[in-house]
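Why does residue order matter? Because the sequence determines the fold. Keep that principle in mind as you read this record.
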Amino acid sequence: MSNRQSAIGNRKSSNGHRSPVGDLCLFGVLLLALLAACAPPPHKPVQMQLVGSDSMHALAQSLVDAYTQQRPYVTIAIRATNSEVGIRAAREYTHTLGLVAREIKPNELDGTRAVVVARDGVAIIVHPSNPINAIMRSQLVQVFSGEILVWPLGPMAGKPIVVVSREDGSGTRHAFEAMAMQGTRVTRTAIVMPSEAAVMDFVARNPTAIGYTSMGAVTDAVRALTIDDVPLSRETVESQKYPFVRTLSFVVPQAADEEMQAFVAFALSAEGQRIVAQRFARVP
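Structure:
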C-alpha cells in the first residue's frame, strides 16, 4: 500500500465509514475519562497522636506501623509519658488517644471511653545471678515494704535488698501497689525510676536489686519470678491465673473521628491482636 493510501485509510474509507483504528482511539479516550470520573478522590492527610503509658509504647508503635503501612495518608505520633497524662490528654486535646496501663475509674473518663486492647502481667524481676526463682505474695509485701532487708541465700546472702519502684503517675506502679501490696506502702528507701527501661537496666546491672515491670519489657537480661507457684507467661495472663494481671487500654474521645475509630477497631481485629500477642496477652 502506498503512503497516500495509508493516510487516506486513517481517515475515512471511500464509502464514508469511519476507520476501525479511529474508533479504537476514541474508545480509549472515553474509557480513560470514565475511569478518572469513577476513581475515588485522594485521601486528605490525617494526623493523630497517642499519649500516655510508657508500658504501652512498644505495642502502640507496632500497631501504628502496621496501620499506617496500609494507610500512608495517616500520620500517628506517639508520646510516652505515664497513664495519668494519657487520661488527661484524651480529655483535653483533639485527635488524641490516651494510653493507660491501669484500671480506670468511671469518673476519670469525662467525655471519653476506655477500650481494653491487651492484658499485661506485672513481672517481679531480679538479676539472673539471683538464686531465687519464686516468691509468695506475702514475702513480696515484706520485701517491698522493707520488712525483709537482706537476701536470705546464695551469693547475695546477708546483702541488703535494693528495692526499685516507679514514679508517681505510673500505671505500672498503680497496678503493683493495688494488686501486690494491697494497701501496704512501698519502702521509702526504694529507688524510683522514670520508665520501664530504666527499671530493667538497673536490675540487670545490680545483682542485689528487685523491681517490677511490664511483661512486655522483660528480656533475658533479668529473670521474672514465679508468684504463688504461677509462672509469668502469655497463657497464664490470658487465663488470669497469674496473680498480677492488668488491662492496657485506649482512652478514646466520645467524639472520635472516623479514622481514630478505625485505628481502635484495627487494634481489636485479628491482625491487631496478633501484634498484641507478640508481647502481651490478647483480649477475650
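The chain has ten helices and eleven strands.
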